[in-house]
Amino acid sequence: MSHLMTVKLIIWLLYFFGKVDINTNKNTDKIKMLIDFMLKDINEMYGIDFQSDEQLKDNLIAHLIGLQNRIKYNTFLMNPMIEDIKRRFPILFDISVYMADQIQSFYHVRLYEEEISYLTLHLMGSLERNGERESKNIVIISPVGKSGMQYFNRRLNHLHQYDVYIKSILSCFEYDKVQLYRPDLVISFDDSIKIKEYPIYYVKNLLNDEDVENIYNMLHQNHKGNSLNKDSQESGFDELFDRIVSILDNPEKAEALIKRG
Asked: Do the beta carbons of residue 193 and residue 165 sit within 8 Å?
């Protein structure tokens, strides 16, 4: 099943638990204003523009009206994939946390992380629909050599709208080979290494969440509009969404997604 089909199933889930009608709900206009405000802020703070995606706006309206109903009955959505979402799409989840802050103020309620993660799914679906994911190439200068490839791939594979490709991991004695790969960014664990031709980010220890966010910011600032590698784009969405669909296909498992207060 394609990830776009799966996005629709996820939206169906949110409709099902919220039983919403965005055309008749009396708070729709206020919710639209909240969403426009959030998307404008996201563009200014993160440099990612969701404002022209009318489908995303409709999905968020439906989600928030459904949330209003869930608040009324003290039932909230759980998400068994939350740790995967946070690990694979940390920036999108960070944006979702910002959105949750605004939503909590609007509804005067505290949201569970699982509820917040469904906002991330909406943002993922928007990026997917609009084909905004692009590729970035990185070279890493590290004392652990190629043995760290799996770890670095796991941390950097998807940075928001970017699919990141680690072209090579070089030792500190091989840094002169960086130019062979023409990277968008060099990540170095040795701050004595200086490379004039390419932007460089220095890491002190292992890549923590702050490092990942800083790396994304540097890639975004030095954006060059590289072409998209579609196969890599689809793999992360497909794998994650297919796992969610396997849960939705089972009514008993779907029922387990409800968290009652």
From this structure: no
